[in-house]
Amino acid sequence: MIRLSRRLLLSLLFALPLAAPAFAAPELDLASLKGKVVYIDFWASWCGPCRQSFPWMKAMHDKHGKDGLVVIAINVDQEKKKADDFIAEFNPAFRLILDPKGELASQFKVQTMPSSFMLDRQGKPRFKHLGFHEAKRSDYEKQIQQLLAEQP
Question: Domains in the chain, start-ordered, CATH in brackets?
């Protein structure tokens, strides 16, 4: 079951500027993450920029996880083996969700791979990224740091 409130979904869609863990079922309970800064990333094994974003997300998780950053990577591959092979290559320690039917991706109106959403400690969407751009890595981290510095 997918748990994404209508209010949060509308907020995400309209209020934003433009050892390997096992995959979880396509469920995203954001209410349980209140008080954390949440980085949600939609990705696929065939996506070139996703290969660039995974090492960066892993570094951000390692660097800022103790400060309250939660990284959730949602895979949209229809073949789990392809996603498993990708994960074996990068070995992330953050949460992984398999969404082969694109249920979550559809709710977030994902248009490109990767697409990421940053939520503040109150669960409000603050930043949205379409694609992953190496030249913007420091900007992405500044956004994470900004959200982490805000009080819950």
Answer: 37-149 (3.40.30.10)
